[in-house]
């Protein structure tokens, strides 16, 4: 009897607030233009912290500095028959710098926006994932966990210290 192992898709997300507004990206998806936190998939050989810094830079052209872990989030996504995915999102709160001159946004990203929580709630149907708003709500509620709440073993980098790679 063949065994199938359930494997979630692991993603990271950045929650960035400045002056009461949250940084979002507007991106092309198979379901049209959607809003999301700067986010993306964890890649082989990188820690979640490295991934969220990379993804935020790619999607916003801004350097991201993680300051706290917001939490781990699970969501099931079944847009079409036969397409059943579960996502595990690792979300971080932090800050970004100014856009880097000459840095293009990642393919599929149309633009970045700064929206209030109420503006985001009003556009909940346009969110790529229900987790985007949940992360913002948790941020608004003051949830902050230590960054070392997610441990990355050196084996991710073949035993090399990631700082020295």
From TrEMBL:
Keywords: Hydrolase, Magnesium
Domain named Nudix hydrolase: residues: 5-137
Cofactor(s) listed: Mg(2+)
UniProt-recorded Gene Ontology molecular function terms: hydrolase activity
Pfam family, any one: NUDIX
Annotated SUPFAM superfamilies: Nudix (SSF55811)
Keyword Magnesium appears in the UniProt entry: yes
Signal peptide span: none
InterPro entries referenced in this protein's UniProt entry, alphabetically: NUDIX_hydrolase-like_dom_sf (IPR015797), NUDIX_hydrolase_dom (IPR000086), NudJ (IPR033713)
Enzyme Commission number: 3.6.1.-
Superkingdom, taxonomy of origin: Bacteria
Record-stated family: Belongs to the Nudix hydrolase family. NudJ subfamily.
Subunit structure and binding partners: Monomer.
PANTHER family: NUDIX HYDROLASE 23, PHOSPHATASE NUDJ
Name of the protein described by the UniProt record: Phosphatase NudJ
Source organism of the structure: Rubrivivax benzoatilyticus
Lineage: Bacteria, Pseudomonadati, Pseudomonadota, Betaproteobacteria, Burkholderiales
């Amino acid at each position: 009897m063949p065994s199938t192992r359930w494997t979630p898709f692991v993603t990271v997300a950045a929650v960035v607030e400045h002056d009461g507004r949250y940084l979002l990206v507007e991106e092309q998806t198979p379901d049209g233009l959607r809003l999301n936190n700067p986010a993306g998939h964890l890649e082989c050989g990188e820690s979640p912290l490295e991934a969220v810094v990379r993804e935020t830079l790619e999607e916003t052209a801004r350097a991201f500095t993680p300051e706290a872990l917001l939490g781990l989030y699970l969501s099931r996504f079944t847009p079409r028959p036969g397409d059943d995915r579960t996502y595990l999102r690792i979300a971080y709160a932090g800050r970004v710098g100014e856009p880097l001159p000459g840095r293009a946004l990642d393919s599929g990203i149309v633009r970045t926006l700064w929206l209030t929580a109420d503006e985001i709630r009003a556009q909940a149907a346009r969110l790529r994932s229900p987790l985007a708003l949940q992360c913002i709500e948790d941020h608004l509620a003051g949830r902050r966990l230590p960054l070392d709440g997610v441990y990355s073993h050196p084996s991710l980098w073949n035993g090399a210290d990631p700082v020295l790679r």
